[in-house]
Amino acid sequence: MVAEGFKYKEFAEDLSGQAKSVIPQDLPEEDQQYVYNTVHNFCFMAGEALANDTEHTYTVDQASIITQFIGEWSFHKSLDVIRGNIPVQNRDSIMQKIAFTIFEIAKQATFKNIPQDQMIGLVEHHVKKAYNEALEELTKRGIISAEVAENAANQSNIDAMAEADSEALDQASDLKILKLAAFALIAQKLPQDKVTTILTHFAPSEANMVMQYMHLDDLENKIDKTLLTQCLQDFQKIMPQKETDSMPKIMRKFGRNVKSVPQDEISRIIQNERPLIEEIVTNPTMYERWHISSEVLDIICGYIEEKIDDYKKKSVR
């Protein structure tokens, strides 16, 4: 069962509402409704099953992540079966196979404490496998032709959205879009449960954009460094605050890590970083003058420490 606080009915409504705001408007109305219903129904059923599971206990965050996986992939693959011209009466069997696969894989990954980034790749692999197996089964039964199966297999709404978002970001002049992308870069370094919590402060359409940007390759190089610095300052306003006495502890640890590697290596690490990060690395004891919350500062320090750890691993080989 799930710890008290997991409101799966409201969560299913929220996820399907986010999906509804980005359903392609070129689809017939009945297909748009199918996408919405699929996301809502599978999220509701998954949430209900987790809430009533008497065999395992889940935290609210774990249940939310599992349900969100189902919501996101139900959205993308329902569009794929539509674009792939799968007969209406055969769509549900494919979607049920995919949803069941996500549910089981995500649960097992949760039990094994697999890191979030690895879980994303694992779920994606099994979604593609389940989708292709379902198409193959329909082909063997003579329900769809090999040509239809191939066309459906080649559909990938998640890749299409990522490509469109990347192109829009390259051409973006809208400050709001750029800020959402900048926040997505910060969110990539946060635990998924914290990202989910923070996104509740966003409009559904904006939250969906953030999630899409989080999956873009080379996102950091697409964002102006000055804008990202401003976003860090804006971001801290909605972050939950840690105890104030944690700030010195964070910076003492960070300062020790910085001093543990040669200065020329630190210079190399920060040479392409934005001014705020350069200043934090250079003067870690001066944290009070930056007016940055401990939560944001912790993220920045963790980002640099990852690069320091990479250097240390390479240096011992």
For the terminal residues, how far apart are their CA atoms?
46 Å
- How many helical stretches? 15
Strand content: under 5%
Number of strands: 0
Alpha carbon gyration radius: 22 Å
Structural class: mainly alpha
Topology (elements, then pairings):
Layout: H1 8-21, H2 29-51, H3 60-83, H4 88-111, H5 116-140, H6 146-153, H7 157-171, H8 175-187, H9 192-199, H10 204-214, H11 225-235, H12 246-259, H13 263-270, H14 275-282, H15 294-315
Note down, in words, how this protein is organized.
By secondary structure, this protein is mainly α. Helices cover 72% and strands 0% of the residues. Helix 1 crosses helix 10, helix 4 (88-111) packs antiparallel against helix 5 (116-140) and helix 5 (116-140) packs antiparallel against helix 6. The longest helix is centred in the middle third of the chain and has 25 residues, at 116-140. It is elongated and about 70 Å long.
Key words describing this protein structure:
elongated, mainly alpha
Q: Summarize this, please?
A:
The protein has 15 helices and no strands.
